[in-house]
Structure formats: C-alpha cells, structure tokens
Design brief:
The protein is of the alpha+beta class. Helix 3 crosses helix 10 and helix 11 runs parallel beside helix 15. It contains 15 helices and 27 strands. A hairpin with a 4-residue loop joins strand 15 and strand 16. The protein has a 5-stranded mixed sheet. Strands 14-13-17-15-16 form a 5-stranded mixed sheet, with helices on one face.
Length: about 575
C-alpha cells in the first residue's frame, strides 16, 4: 500500500515539477525523505491556489496580531468563549426543541390522523394566535407550551372522532428579530429562530467587547428589564440561566464592565475577573478555582495602583480577604513555593528523584545523593535540561526543513549531492539531546565555585561508570568499542576498527569527548603526528569517534552542521546506554 501511494505521488508530483526534479532522482531518495520533499512541493503549490471554504454562518473574529497579543496579555476570563461571531445578520439556525417551547405566530404544526380517518395537515399559527383544524375549527394556541398544545389537540380529536389517533409535530418555527446593543462586540438587529435565548443572541453578535460586562446583561421587553443575566453563573458554576426564550422586539443590552480585578500566581485559574459590588477578594479566589497545591498562603498581597504609585496590602489572615474593599485594577498575588524536582541516576550511591530548592546546585544534589560510587566517571557526567532540549529540537527541525527546501530548489549547490538525502534521513531519525555542558568533578568545583551549575526543574543527571573503551562508528569496517590505551591516536582507533570505508569523509571526523564537547577534525592522516609531537588531540576513556559519510558539496561547513546534532546525540545515547547496561 505504501509503495502504491509513493508511486502515485511520484507520478503526480514529477509530472507537475518535471522542470525542477528528475523522477529518477526522486525514486533514489529514502522513502521518508522522498515523502517530505513531495509534501514540500505540494504545500508550495497549495499556497498558490485560491482558498475555497464551505459556507458557514459563524466565522472567527478578525483580530489583528496586535489585538491577539493584547488579549493574551490581558487574559480576561471568558474572552475565549466568544472567539467566533455571526458572519451575517440572517443566520441559519437549527435549534433543539423540547416540550416547553412556546408557540406563537409563524410556527407550523403537522397534524397526522391515523385510524378510521387518515390525513396529514399543516396547521400554521395565525396572527391572532390560532390554528384551524379541519372539521373541528379554530383553536387558540399562541402562548402555550408545545406539550400543552399536543394534549389539547389530542383531546379535541378524541372528542370529535372515534377510533382516531392524533400525532402532532412542530415542522417549522418562527423567525424573530432582536436588537443586541450596548457593549456587544458587533451590535445590531439579528434574525433568530423562536427557540433562541440570550446566549444565542450574544453568540451571534460576537459576545462582549473589551469594555463590556459579563456580569450584567439585560433583556428588555416592552421597555422593562424582565431578566438580568450574569454570565459567570454559567461559565463558572454551570447554572442554566438562559431559559427565557426571546421574542420579536426584544432588546439585549450589554452593560459596561464593573470592577476588573486580577488574581495571579499560585491559583488554579489565574486571570482578570470582573467583580460586582457584592463581591470581595474571597469570591475572587473562588473564581480562580482556588489555591494551587504549591501556594504559599503566607505571601498573599494585594497590589493597588494609585495615581502615580502603587500601594501594597499584605494579607496576614485569609479571613481578612472578605473585609477589604475591592477596587478596579487591584491585583491579588499568590506566591508559590519554588518546588523543583530533579533525577539523578548511574554511579551514584543513592540515585532517585530529589526535591530541590531554588538556586540549588549540582554539587549539593550529589551530596544529597551521598556522593559518587568508587567506579563513577564524573568527567563523563551528563546533565539534560528541558529548555536546552526544546531549543535543540526546534533548531534541528529548522535545519532539516531548510535542507529539504534545498532538495526542492533547482540549481542549489547541494542538490547534486547523492549523500545528502542519507544524512537528512539520519537527522530525521535522531533523537535530539538536551545535554548541557557542566562540571562534575567535585574537587574542581570546590576550588572554583563559579563552575557549580545551578539546577532547573526536571533536570536529569546521569553519572556513568569509568569506561575503558573508546567508541568508533560511522563509515568504518567494524564499528563498535575498542580498548582504551593512553598512547593511541585517532588514526590508531580508526585502524583498529578496520579502517574507513570508501564512502567515508575521514577528513571531517568528529570526536565527542566524555564531557560532551564536540570537535570536528580535518586532515586525520596527520593526526598521529600531531598527537605524538604536541599532544594536541587527546582521546579519553569513553570518547566517541564518528566518521561521517562523504557529502560532495562546495560548502563543507554546511553539511557539517547537519552531522553535529547527530553525533552529539549519539554520544549521549552511548553514555546513557552504558549506564543502563551497568545497572
């Protein structure tokens, strides 16, 4: 199946882009690289096509990048509820109806009689609120719930006909027009169906604007406020507060926002909230879904902006929160205990997961873990950091995509390289490492405290055992481990692995030292001389030597940039694997 798909893609894409890519060249690429190249071609072609969308009555709000950034920074609770808006003033509505739906002018019922009399009739509610049932006459139904009308019609049919059963269905509902105004995002007159409520109308109008209130939205009928809605009741507490169905001529007014107060820090839902006159800071904490597990309740503080300054109110007792007056623009900050966890494994006396404090260092963690074992090899220690990992992953993805683009682009200097797809395949398969350079020798750290690394949350530390091996892999006859000898040079280890094969790029050999430092070495043939004379090239126990495949390119540094993350990750994996095997 995969071969069929690839073949189909090849035929289609090669036909379209025959001026850029040769079909035989595409077939020569590894499967996953070929698919990425074809995908890149398709995406480029797709970008040039006009966009056709299925007709929809709801669209995303047309926020600019500045508005999106401002909304994100503002972080007002409830804003994302109304991220879409009605694309026209005449929406297509398909509501779910229940037996409580109240009939009015414009609704249509279907009456089906079965038994000694069989018929189907449509009964429209007229302006006077009545329907006309054949052979029975006028029946007033306006203002009655659908369930009551159903019972009324069945009773009339049962009294008029013997052996006849009636079935009533609402087949068409009326349209109504309502005005949405005030601080609505897109105020105006909207046509909705007769089953709509305030939330439906607000959704059509795009919700509340930046200055509007979520806490006070009034429904006005016949110049009187018949209902005032607080959206927090539905958004936070899940109450069903929208049962009042709208009628033609209704007005919905979104009032201006009231006290806008922020709660930040160690709460479960930090955001900007709107408080009413009856709310206090205890309510604000409830809106924030309560304190987080790491909240330090002894550090609560209210920041209150003044004309040209800021005052601070420290909270010594939680009960005080109910008694302090709330002002708009106040900020309640809840600090968190800075709890961090790190993992240490390998040749350590007490490996495991440790909780550390802010600013704790590598040496203090090793002390907590009761120091190194006798066979530990601190020079080969590994520190893996989440931030470094994320950055390396992004960098590797960008690197990969840039070279895929080079394969697509005709005339690029690297396009003719037969080996480039191979190393792209290797890069794609490589598990990127988040290793950072660190000093693990406690004596060195004791002599110079500046070399002690501060740990971050979720750091991983691996302490390998002392290795007596040097690892060599890549384009050699016998990749694997070779016994370490202090007198051996790089060329000695290459010779010990059976020598480099014909496809190798021996003059761009990589040496990865146990501490993670990577060196790219040119002119390997002279290394043994340099090593013997000047001791410039050192190989340590646990070092990794990698000979890449030759890539014929005018820009050697460019291809070397692809190999660097591959060999660095491979060296980290070899060290980590040796720790697992030793355990």
């Amino acid at each position: 199946m995969n071969k069929f798909l690839v073949t189909t893609l090849l035929i289609t894409s090669a036909a379209i882009f025959s001026q850029e890519l040769d079909e035989s060249y595409l077939k020569s690429l590894p499967d996953n690289i070929r698919e990425d190249v074809l995908l890149k071609i398709d995406q480029r072609d797709e970008d040039e096509k006009p966009i056709y969308r299925r007709q929809s009555s709801m669209i995303d709000k047309p926020f600019s990048e500045e508005e999106m950034e401002a909304r994100k920074k503002r972080n007002r609770f409830g804003d994302n509820i109304f991220d879409t808006m009605q694309s026209s003033f005449m929406p297509i509505n398909e509501p779910n109806l229940d037996s409580s739906y109240v009939l009015d002018f414009g609704d249509t019922l279907e009456l089906q009689l079965i038994g000694q009399k069989n018929s189907i009739d449509n009964l429209s509610v007229k302006r006077d609120g009545s329907i006309n049932i054949p052979e029975i006459g006028k029946l007033f139904v306006s203002g009655l719930p659908l369930d009551d009308v159903n019972k009324l019609i069945k009773a009339k049919i049962s009294a008029a006909f013997i052996g006849v059963e009636a079935f009533i269905t609402l087949v068409n509902i009326r349209d109504i027009q309502v005005l949405v105004t005030g601080n609505a995002y897109n105020p105006g007159i909207y046509t909705l169906n007769g089953n709509s409520n305030i939330l439906n109308a607000l959704s059509m109008a795009g919700g509340v604007d930046i200055n509007g209130s979520f806490r006070k939205i009034d429904l006005i009928r016949n110049n009187e406020v018949i209902k005032s809605v607080d959206l927090y009741d539905i958004f936070i507490y899940g109450k069903s507060g929208f049962g009042e169905r709208l009628r033609s001529g209704d007005s919905i007014i979104v009032r201006p926002s009231m006290k806008m107060v922020t709660i930040s820090g160690a709460v479960k839902r930090p955001a900007l909230y709107e408080l009413t006159e009856d709310n206090n800071f205890s309510d604000l904490i409830d809106y924030g879904d309560g304190f987080a597990d790491n909240a330090n309740l002894e550090t609560l503080r209210i920041e209150r902006p003044l004309k040209d300054d800021t005052s601070f109110i420290d909270i010594l007792d939680l009960d005080e929160l109910s008694n302090i007056d709330v002002r708009s623009s106040d900020r309640l900050n809840v600090r968190a205990f800075d709890r961090r966890t790190v993992t240490i494994s390998g040749a350590i006396n007490t490996p495991g997961v440790y909780t550390i404090s802010k600013g704790e260092t590598l040496s203090s963690l090793i002390s907590k873990a009761q120091g190194y074992k006798d066979n530990a090899y601190p020079f080969g220690g590994i520190l893996i950091n989440e931030t470094a990992l994320a950055l390396n992953v992004v960098a590797a993805e960008k690197l990969y995509k840039s070279f895929v683009q080079r394969l697509v682009t005709k005339g690029d200097a690297l396009f003719a390289s037969e080996s480039l797809p191979f190393i792209l395949d290797e890069l794609k398969k490589t598990e990127i490492s988040g290793r950072v350079m660190a000093e693990f020798d406690l004596d060195v750290i004791e002599a110079n405290k500046d070399l002690d690394t501060t740990l971050d949350n979720n750091d991983q530390i691996i302490i390998p055992i002392k290795s007596e091996q040097v690892y060599i892999f890549g384009e050699v006859n016998q990749p694997g481990a070779i016994r370490y000898k202090p007198s051996k040079s790089v060329t000695d280890y290459i010779a010990g692995a059976g020598g480099a094969i014909e496809s190798s790029d021996v003059d761009n050999t990589f040496v990865i030292h146990p501490n993670g430092e990577v060196n790219r070495i040119s002119n390997v043939s002279r290394l043994s001389i340099l090593n013997n004379r000047n001791n410039e090239i050192l190989i340590y126990p646990g070092s990794v030597i990698y000979i890449p495949r030759e890539v014929k390119s005018r820009d050697a540094s460019m291809t070397a940039s692809i190999w660097a993350p591959i060999v660095s990750s491979a060296a980290t994996s070899i060290t980590a694997l040796s720790v697992l095997n030793s355990n």
